[in-house]
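Continuing the batch. This is chain 6 of the set; chains 1 through 5 are on the previous pages. Same settings as before, nothing changed between runs. Recording input and output for traceability.
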Amino acid sequence: MRVFTCTPVDFGGNANFFTRDSGLLCRGLQENGVESRAVMPGAPRPDDLTDLIRTDYANLESAAWWRSHQLDGVVLYAWGSPRFRNVAKAIHDAGCYLILNQDNSGPISPLAGLAPWARDQWALAGSGTTLKEKITGAVSILKGMTVGLAVTDPLRAAHLRQGDRIACVSPAAAAHYRKLCKWYGGDELVQKIRVLPHSVEAEFHDRGGDRKPSIVAVGRWDDEAQKRPGLLATTLSEVLLENHAVVATIAGRTTKQLIAWHRNLPHEVVARVRLAGPLSRAELVDLFARTQIFYSSSAFESFGIAAAEALCSGCSVVAENSGSMESFRWFVSAQSGNLANSPADHSRALLAELAAWQQCDRSAARISATWREQFHAKNVANRVIEMINSR
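Output for chain 6:
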């Protein structure tokens, strides 16, 4: 069997590319004995790996080019974007079984559900905490209700109709897409929808041993609107003052604001907080294997790959119960975490989760086993193989 993955954007093609998304799915397919390579446009780069095919973008829109590779299937990571509809059409016209990966939480149009979509647009704009964010959110909603419905949605529908399967990264995302596809193509299009989460590397798994009360947060902390480092700092301060046994690690590029917050923590707290900075994959694997709780202070996530990696490692997760964080409702569904009802409730949710670990209501081995079955690349790739074989 020959199955390629494709991202129609000129990203780097080095080893890091093959640790997630289309690159990691390619690896999972190879692990299952499938002949697989990843495809991207652009000129070759010195650090591109050999199982990456670089080609002119025009070839991605050529059915003849795709046909020349004699493929059984293609998994296209193109977000259902209208701008890539001709790529999807070329793969379809080449006779390849086409799986369209949708890397989003689902409410991408008012047709997917007006209220969830409007909340998502508001969150993406920064939740209206400043006048600029209020204006940005209002403009985004107005644009989606006009240009979006008149232009974007028909073009996205043309893209999605090319697929044999429409793969959504969570059950909640799939539910939104069912509403959307009902408008786009009726029951015939709805029947193409499947849940196919993002892949996680096999290195992320429970390694046994004792886990002391501990919290880890991973993020691009300079992205204040999405990652909310101010909320992270406030929440951790409250938790560390309440629970004197817990330690916390913050991984990712550290901002001046976080450094200042850390410096001004009370003496009895500061030693229990580590600003780790960016970590290598090996360091992250080791950190997750020793930690009880992965905490996300994010306002929105399309999926949450770092959280999925933590679950596979045996951590439970805490995040906000929000329509813009719907994957996390799935993540906590197997006695594997706890959700906060509002930003002000994050510390309570973390303290409750620490208590659950202390009371032996959480098992790292069980959490890891449950979510490795869902997320490890070999298992995700096997579902792709099953889809292709079922045609």
